[in-house]
């Protein structure tokens, strides 16, 4: 492979590599006839990203003819080539990428201002192909938004937050932080943001749904989308099946495929954390209109009396299953690449997120039993000794 | 027990945010006392907080457009909560351009202070963000721990120099030593001193002026004092640094009372907010 | 107590008094050589030379000429002492080292000779700080015997272009290899890191190259860890002269302009790494 990137596209390429570095430690590079594919996957295989740059993205592009060639290398090393992201635009005039299969060497040559020439020779390993199993076109829900909207949204969440829950219902979209069930987490702050469908460029909801996925990768994609100003599409179905975040343009296509928490863990989380913050959000305006005394803390009343809608979400949660889209198995059938991933079957799946490549997680009985007990404990602990005695 | 409040004015929102930011730099957790007229952020000098105490008083009318409070009992019309100021600060930071911010005591999975804000958008419908911040309700029997500290019977009271200057000096001294001696007299002079095996450093401030405390009898000791005589206290330099770090705006008045070899009492007045901070002496 | 009356008391027995209207003209240049605590001060009627060394392989010198000071009085041919440089810098910047125009810290520095502390009087906006820093007997700095007659290759570059390279250097590489040659690649910086190698080539006709005098091809390696502190000097400088002698010793000379546009120099000497692979 031999290609040249010039002008502003150097920065686009650099940003793409920085985005990919949010996903995994290795960069998979595959020059194809249809363009250059850069991919990465995280260690638990629950997040995958692919940037496909079409030949038109380059001012020159020659792919190896004949047999397919793939390689992988440490993403940090490629990142180092484009270390000074901020000054890249001003200093780099041309970037030449050359792949020498015989020497197992990938060479980046940056032609910079004042005649300075930077040559980076990186070694690589041959690799298997890396393709995730997803079919974004079959997703029942699609949202498209300007990067700014999502950037402003994630700003509300603390940088250390790992997972975020996205819910859609009617004409509204909710983002809220997802918390683990561990006891110390009950002291964590909960943030919820409600957006109207008007704020999205495209809003097509086939089935009310609520999914939980990692925020880190979304942030990674946002860095890219914001610098290129391209809108982001979010394709998703029911909990447990992957969410696909994509950015496309005439010369590039980006897909981030992230596993979502399967239903049972979602349910568990909601029961434990709050009754109100269940999978189906409360009417959006309830907090903003002034008749919400039912939400005020009223510790003088019985410790079991939650808000009247407290039970409803759980009912909705269980009734949601029939409305879901084709099960994961269908996606698997569509995959041709799956065999190539077999060497990784021994790897235990991530504790919460199913791998994007294999299997599904079934709710298990012991968890369900456990969950019931936990939620009862929570209700009981609502009473505060002092408040009862101190109230009229 | 009910509490709800609302801020519409952007100036008030900024001001309130600054106060909360300041508190969040001073302590990880503190008590928020809500009364019909005032809000208080309180830290009582426990060993766990390094012995420092804090008392910050805000008049609710100066911040809130609406303010409703129903205390735990008619004879105790107050609510006392343990809060994490950093959480309040983070919630406020994300709603700086809000059209309106409501703060409410709510019952979620645990007692929470809920911040709800309406954020402007390009579309006709606002964005709504809510932050549920878990709090602990402090039982009435423990309230006595969080009363306003008494003004100590100090030896010297003095106005502080610009806090920025003081912060620069204390920051460097912190690099050189763990302890600092603060001394002042009734002649408007104040010194900050450190001494180690490698170096001794003294910064001399003069013409600072001494506040005319009077009427409350607490200044009895300083009445007949030699104006040149220094009262001094040795403190943990980090405590003083932390106090100075939290100050984002120069207060209209900044003062310090020194009880010789016992305690330093720092007082900041900024418009309608007062902040008192007590740092105990170390041997 | 004003700055002058306070300093009066110790000035009767001084051997060295130096004053600056703007302490940054001293503190900034000392920052460029701060990589070890111990600094050797040597004052002569020409000015002040401050030396910092690391493991007998690296030496940094800062020169502040007598003319930079508003007052520079020395009662002996040469006055030497050793102080902790980190402590000295904290003292010099006690008021924060403000860069706000019109706000400067004045300095008066006095030394009464062997056994006495170095006394600093600093004043900003009427506030006075007095510092007494313990001194030690100075050690003899290493003589690197770097002599301009033995210089084989020399280039002068605008610092701007080297700053970029140094900020991007692959720190997983143990060495920085410098190639200077009358033919291609002229002036090359190379690293050999975990994942591959990188070369930065500066053509001799680049507009960043102010002088190019290379008589023979020379490739030398220097420990990255030793060269790293020199980036502090690079950051402050506007030009840098890179020289190597016949033994492969490296001299980096940085031209630094202070707040008053006066010129000072900082220089670094570095021994070549012993295990040089022939390339």
TrEMBL record, chain A:
The keyword Signal does not apply. Residues 336-345, 382-392 have a biased composition (Acidic residues). Gene3D superfamilies: 3.70.10.10. Residues 264-278, 363-375 have a biased composition (Polar residues). SUPFAM superfamilies: DNA clamp (SSF55979). It is found in: Nucleus. Residues 264-290, 303-392 are annotated as: Disordered. GO terms for biological process: DNA damage checkpoint signaling; DNA repair. It catalyses: Exonucleolytic cleavage in the 3'- to 5'-direction to yield nucleoside 5'-phosphates. Residues 313-327 have a biased composition (Low complexity). Its main location: nucleus. The keyword Transmembrane helix does not apply. GO terms for cellular component: checkpoint clamp complex. Pfam families: Rad9. GO terms for molecular function: double-stranded DNA 3'-5' DNA exonuclease activity. Keywords: DNA damage, Exonuclease, Hydrolase, Nuclease, Nucleus, Phosphoprotein. Component of the 9-1-1 cell-cycle checkpoint response complex that plays a major role in DNA repair. The 9-1-1 complex is recruited to DNA lesion upon damage by the RAD17-replication factor C (RFC) clamp loader complex. Acts then as a sliding clamp platform on DNA for several proteins involved in long-patch base excision repair (LP-BER). Belongs to the rad9 family. This is Cell cycle checkpoint control protein. It comes from Umbra pygmaea. The lineage of its organism: Eukaryota, Metazoa, Chordata, Craniata, Vertebrata.
From TrEMBL, chain B:
The keyword DNA damage applies. The keyword Signal does not apply. Keywords: Cytoplasm, DNA damage, Nucleus. GO terms for cellular component: cytosol; nucleus. It comes from the Eukaryota. It is found in: Cytoplasm, Cytosol; Nucleus. SUPFAM superfamilies: DNA clamp. Signal peptide: none annotated. Belongs to the HUS1 family. Component of the toroidal 9-1-1 (RAD9-RAD1-HUS1) complex, composed of RAD9A, RAD1 and HUS1. The 9-1-1 complex associates with LIG1, POLB, FEN1, RAD17, HDAC1, RPA1 and RPA2. The 9-1-1 complex associates with the RAD17-RFC complex. HUS1 interacts with POLB, HDAC1, FEN1, PCNA and RAD9B. HUS1 does not interact with RAD17. Interacts with DNAJC7. Component of the 9-1-1 cell-cycle checkpoint response complex that plays a major role in DNA repair. The 9-1-1 complex is recruited to DNA lesion upon damage by the RAD17-replication factor C (RFC) clamp loader complex. Acts then as a sliding clamp platform on DNA for several proteins involved in long-patch base excision repair (LP-BER). This is Checkpoint protein. It comes from Umbra pygmaea.
From TrEMBL, chain C:
Keywords: DNA damage, DNA repair, Nucleus. InterPro entries: Cell_cycle_checkpoint_Rad1 (IPR003011), DNA_clamp_sf (IPR046938), Rad1_Rec1_Rad17 (IPR003021). The keyword DNA repair applies. The keyword Secreted does not apply. Component of the toroidal 9-1-1 (RAD9-RAD1-HUS1) complex, composed of RAD9A, RAD1 and HUS1. The 9-1-1 complex associates with LIG1, POLB, FEN1, RAD17, HDAC1, RPA1 and RPA2. The 9-1-1 complex associates with the RAD17-RFC complex. RAD1 interacts with POLB, FEN1, HUS1, HUS1B, RAD9A and RAD9B. Interacts with DNAJC7. Interacts with RHNO1; interaction is direct. Belongs to the rad1 family. This is Cell cycle checkpoint protein RAD1. It comes from Umbra pygmaea (Eastern mudminnow).
